[in-house]
Amino acid sequence: MKIDATRSASDDRDQHIESVAGEQIAGEKPASRKINLFVFATHHTADNIASQRFKGLLKYLDFQKYRVFIFSRAASRGAGEASLPAGGEVDLNGIHVLNFRGHCVGTESSTASSLLPLISAFASGTPFLAAATNRMLGRDSDTWLINALDAADTLCRARLAAGEACIVIGTYSPIDALVAARCLSAKHHLPCLQDFRDGLTFETLGRQGRLSALLRQLVESRVVTASGLVTTVSRALVNDFERRYPRTKVGLMPNGYDPADFSTQDDESRSAASKLMAQHVPPGKRLIGHFGRISASDHSRIGSLECFVRAMNASPIAGQHAHALFVGELTPIEREIVARLECTHSTVDSVPRPVALNLMMQCQQLLLITGDGVGCATGKLFEYLAAGPQVICFSGVENEASRILAETGAGATVLTTDAAQAPALLDRLFGAASGGAAQRGIGVYSKVEQVRQFDRWLSGMVA
């Protein structure tokens, strides 16, 4: 929705939220008493891997039992524009999605812009006080945490007044979402689930340095110890949380894949994928594809990429029959390394996700690049599993991804320390009559299956 230029963004937002917060939600019976989920997921409306973790899971919930409010982040972060471009809109699954503009803590953040979220981790009433002050002064906030929590507080009070159960969920990253969940949970004494897609202190992402590491540790401790359940993506991360927080319940919930993404391919995406194939892949070549970024969040993956290039150049059959396609943003050093490939190869800038998924299904092999992180279980891996072609992973260490490939029979892993055997493996792969589908034993990673465990966890939190 667009903001009326004659009214402030906060006036428009408050009116819209109040309409959503009414005791009877549109389309529901007045007597309905549901479990309300308040999900802080800043990436939800983005078209990237980070958005898929909860986006695919929540839509399979039983909406006779649950009502879902998602507090996401608008694409633009302009100051003073804390509006709701999609605020209060309900998607086809009955999920209420509210987008907010504003700053979040990130590697580009200044100390000043990061201060409020960090303070709020320890003084949970701070963002509510800031929202009240802004309202009194008639001004808008440029901080996502304040805007999202102000709306969540209004909605939460209405649902509690209606006698309904409420659960708060925070999803990392950024840390703002975890802090927001803790603040709302503390104010209303609600059960809280904190989800870690990546490690906040275990194989950390983000700004380096002792001060940053200390702040991450302190924030993690505050949000974890105040939660009723922590969920995370790999066994290594589960073990780490259990060791450091023995009083906190920890559950394994891999990123997984949404089967609907692969069963409902549209004609436009198929056509776009076919055009890209015609433009970039020579006829008769066997295609190995890599999708997404490589070293943007883990520089150790550079060594694995170099290992892949050396192995391809040492494989006579790959050199003759293979074409390597890289889809997604590459850094300058990654482009320089890819340019060393002696087989035909091409790079394509980021494409819409449905097009990328269609391209995956047209590959003979899919390339996964991981580094030195043993907890690595990237969402890309699960899309690869569902797409079907065999996966070959080049990695610095045995990790969660390599374990899953071995467990499912969906592919093989080459370690940089054992690279001498890689050319022979590539000879076999590109010399085979067909790449073959590798969908074996992957059902446990389907969102349709995962939501059953998710439902049991949530039900237990309000029992």
The name of the CATH topology of the largest domain is Rossmann fold
Beta content: 15-25%
Overall pLDDT = 82
- Any idea of the CATH class of the largest domain? Alpha Beta
Q: Within the largest sheet, what's the order of strands?
A: 3-4-2-1-5-6-7-8
Number of domains: 2
**Poorly predicted residue ranges:** 1-9, 77-88
What is the CATH superfamily classification of the largest domain? Glycogen Phosphorylase B
Number of strands: 14
The 3D shape can be described as: elongated
> What's the total helix number?
18
The computed structural class is alpha/beta
Q: N-to-C terminal Cα separation, in Å?
A: 38 Å
Helix content: 40-55%
The gyration radius over C-alpha positions equals 23 Å
The CATH architecture designation of the largest domain is 3-Layer(aba) Sandwich
Largest sheet: 8 strands, mixed
Task: Draw up the topology in text.
Layout: H1 9-21, E1 35-40, H2 49-58, E2 66-73, E3 89-90, E4 95-100, H3 111-120, H4 126-137, H5 144-161, E5 165-172, H6 175-188, E6 192-196, H7 210-225, E7 229-232, H8 235-244, E8 250-252, H9 260-263, H10 267-280, E9 286-291, H11 301-314, H12 316-321, E10 322-327, H13 332-338, E11 344-348, H14 353-362, E12 365-369, H15 379-387, E13 390-395, H16 400-408, E14 411-415, H17 422-431, H18 447-461
Parallel strand pairs: 1-2, 1-5, 2-4, 5-6, 6-7, 7-8, 9-10, 9-12, 10-11, 12-13, 13-14
Antiparallel strand pairs: 3-4
